[in-house]
DNA sequence: GATAATTGCGCAATGG
DNA sequence: CCCATTGCGCAATTAT
């Protein structure tokens, strides 16, 4: 699922199967399903007005009709477009996931770093606090007393 | 290995005559006629077939064949399954995006918090350092540290 | 080689 | 009315 090979196709006559248009039947298959042809509510003649909210069935879609063919083609185009978009969107979403994952890792790393820094600073603070306490208890020496001595307590 | 397919004209422009897929359902709705002219070589007689690199056309897929119908049905099932999965996957991906977004926000908030904490601690540190310096310079005063001004930055 | 999975495409119904 | 979406089937390809 990685190489969208081109859907190469050829002319209509290379496979013995492709049939061209001009087939005005909507037949139901034998066992399975198939769409159903519908009755024809005649042709809307005249000014084509007066369309009550009744059940109005569409004509069986004259496959030969120029109109029909035209609409079909347009729709096919629209379908193609829509599907393309859909696919594109999916890919974009996938990419978004990747980006977010990356971002996530970045943030996680940053958090780790900050935590570390914080931890160090806190330790320093505690150390200082102890020093101060010591100094308060034994304010004899004037300066330069980084050496830790007291080791009692908990 | 994989040979790139041939160029397939899929231009989104107007095709004069659209080639409809093989939809040669011969069955009629009203006037049922379940007789489809199928020209099938039937069972290959004779021994082995020597079909060298020639053009061998597939048979027009006998639509009436039980075999055919069976395969179609299976394929339809497979198709449905495949599409379902595809759709599901897309949804999952979308959801993943949402989750990651949330997670990111969470992390971002945490970073903000940690940064704040760090900033405070650093300020405190600087303050202390200044106090110490002051004490060293003027060790005569008692214990009245004036609020030091300081502006740390990042 | 057979079967299952994918993929492109067209049709029709339905929703804007 | 036109376009967009969507479910569905067919057939060709590809993967197992």
From TrEMBL, chains A, B:
This protein's UniProt keywords: Activator, DNA-binding, Isopeptide bond, Nucleus, Transcription, Transcription regulation, Ubl conjugation
Source domain of life: Eukaryota
Cellular compartments annotated: Nucleus
InterPro entries cross-referenced by the UniProt entry: bZIP, bZIP_sf, C/EBP
Sequence similarity: Belongs to the bZIP family. C/EBP subfamily.
CDD domains (UniProt xref): bZIP_CEBPG (cd14713)
Pfam families, alphabetized: bZIP_2
Feature: compositional bias, Low complexity: 27-41
SUPFAM superfamilies: Leucine zipper domain
Protein name, as recorded: CCAAT/enhancer-binding protein gamma
Principal location listed in the UniProt entry: nucleus
Residue ranges of the region described as Disordered: 27-67, 79-99
A GO BP annotation: DNA-templated transcription
GO cellular component entries: nucleus
Residue intervals of the BZIP domain: 65-128
Originating species: Tetraodon nigroviridis (Spotted green pufferfish)
